[in-house]
Amino acid sequence: MEIVKFMLMIGGMVLVTFIPRVLPLALLGKKELPEKVVLWLSFIPAAVLAALLAPSILLKNGNLYLSLENTALIAFFPTLLVAYKTKNIFYTVSGGLIFYLLISLLF
């Protein structure tokens, strides 16, 4: 009986992962989207990345951690400058890692 539950659970996970990815492609694959929709969709990756990173930068043990001892927060500002100047995700991520490492080593 446990194997049936396990297989149903795997099948459910496949459906909830597969349907949101395939359904828009199937419905909108051959249609031209309006310019405003394309522009709006272009902001989704940055918004998701910000939503994933903000808690790790700003929180410690579930509380707001605004301090000069917050290495991630201090490294965030030069990383933000790199992102603004280069507009390149590779340089931004690499710069962020380097800034974090340097700040960790220096302080």
From TrEMBL:
Domain of life: Bacteria
Membrane-crossing segments per the record: 6-28, 37-58, 64-82, 89-106
Xref: Pfam families: AzlD (PF05437)
Keywords, ordered alphabetically: Membrane, Transmembrane, Transmembrane helix
Name this polypeptide is given: Branched-subunit amino acid transport protein
